[in-house]
Amino acid sequence: MTDLARTGTVFGVGLGPGNPDLMSVKADRLIRSARHVAYFRKVGKAGLARSIVSGMLPPDTVEFPMEYPVTTEIALSDPAYNASLAPFYAECVAHLTALVRSGEDVVVLCEGDPFFYGSFMHLHARLEGLVPVEVLPATTGMSGAWTATGQPITWGDDVLTVLMATLPEPELARRMADTDALVVMKIGRNMDRVRRALATAGKLETAFVVEYATMPNQRVTRLVDMAEGVTPYFTIVLLHGQGRRP
After folding, report:
1. Three-state DSSP state, 217
2. How far from the centroid of its chain's Cα atoms is residue 58's Cα?
């Protein structure tokens, strides 16, 4: 038997925005037959990815929770942030590589789409060229969010911009003013900054907030009606385009 015949595959499986019914058929099949699964989570938490697949895994599945050494405790601009995460990702890759080279397939559970602002990308960049990797795309959280509002996010020639709320406030305001439709992610502690930037851009009155899109506790609110302060991690701010239509 050749080395190639004994090699497994790492599957980066997109789970979608949170509702298990929105997974792809292939994702469902891989998860229900998985011998090994890995997923990211914060220390002390179950992790949303693992929660989404609750009841789907075979009873003998071996789980590998990958617990972030830091999340929001250190500023993104602090060199200590990358100094903590780089060896963490290296350890995760070493574990996954050892499993795959022993002939095992590993399903890495990914919230949303694996290639859209997800932690799996950091694994993929390190695994590519070492072992076989296959990525399964998924419905994004932002798609689930704008569907929850009951309105199209874009019309005709509308330009859609996706922003991270972690950007400096002047940069947020500039980009918000220069787009037709808008998605703002990574809200959390940055909601007040997003609110001020939208006001500066003259677009506060038409913005929506969607929390936990597609999940049982989903909530859709106009931003002007929402209290100030910290929001849940799974929060997205939306601005609908009003472009060309028949």
Report:
1. coil
2. 25
Q: 4-139: which CATH topology?
A: Cobalt-precorrin-4 Transmethylase; domain 1 (3.40.1010)
Q: Where are the domains of the chain?
A: 4-139, 142-239
Q: Which residue has the higher pLDDT, 45 or 158?
A: 158
Give the CATH class of 142-239. Answer: alpha beta
- Dist. CA 246–CA 242, nearest whole Å: 12
Torsion of CA 14, 20, 24, 29, to 10 degrees: 100
- Measured distance CA(93)–CA(172) in Å, rounded: 34
User: Is the pLDDT reported for residue 133 higher than 60?
Assistant: yes
Average pLDDT over residues 50-54: 95
pLDDT for the residue 5: 58
